[in-house]
């Protein structure tokens, strides 16, 4: 994956913030994937998957796929559309009707065909399967495809190179592709580094799965401002999370809003709320139980695709961020 992505994705910076470090009581290192191509980490996995398909066709002398198909709340769809456009492969993206308009517009801008669906895991999967059958395309799952997981894992490789002093990495989790890929990369090279998944308590399937020791999908998920992590972890990411992720931390909607606003105000970085989930976890009471010798904590700011028209929640917060 690292070889395929070299020169095709940005090596995003790792930034610090003294004010947020004082609040957390630890040194914080922010891996800024909001500066990545297409505005999120998702291009890593999508590009690795598409390049894998291209390389396979070159190796066998076969034709390129007729199309690539996926379902996405926005960021993976945008990334796959970008990757497919570069290889001149048609892309079809199944998108929940509730997905942010800015993300839907970005998918269209990369030439992909949008197929609307209802905002549920079942509807997304069923609609994508129908599109695959109709188009003869290849399904590139947003978080369960091995090539996608491997691509996201390059974040972990970069973190270890850019911040070798790191003791822990905190990663937002939805379907689990990013945290699974990062965990594989980091535990292979630095098994001493802790890997934490962070998710909204409204969609806490990863936490429930970890507690119960078995895959426990969200059958009746509630709404969350972190729209990119509404999906449940799946059969390919769960075993990795079970075996390699040290703990799963859940945070409330208010904690996510506060953390997102803190990054905006203190770091001047326009992250999307999903990217605020990691900081919210580190600032939570639960993280205080983590031993103090875990002092250098890397938080993945996973994306910055914000629909500015929806930010009325900012006015709902009384006063300034502390």
TrEMBL record:
InterPro entries: Ser/Thr_deHydtase_PyrdxlP-BS (IPR000634), TrpB-like_PALP (IPR001926), TrpB-like_PALP_sf (IPR036052). Its cofactor is Ca(2+); pyridoxal 5'-phosphate; Mn(2+); Mg(2+). CDD domains: Thr-dehyd. Residues 9-303 form the Tryptophan synthase beta chain-like PALP domain. It catalyses: L-serine = D-serine; D-serine = pyruvate + NH4(+); L-serine = pyruvate + NH4(+). Its EC number is 4.3.1.17, 4.3.1.18, 5.1.1.18. Catalyzes the synthesis of D-serine from L-serine. D-serine is a key coagonist with glutamate at NMDA receptors. Has dehydratase activity towards both L-serine and D-serine. This is Serine racemase.
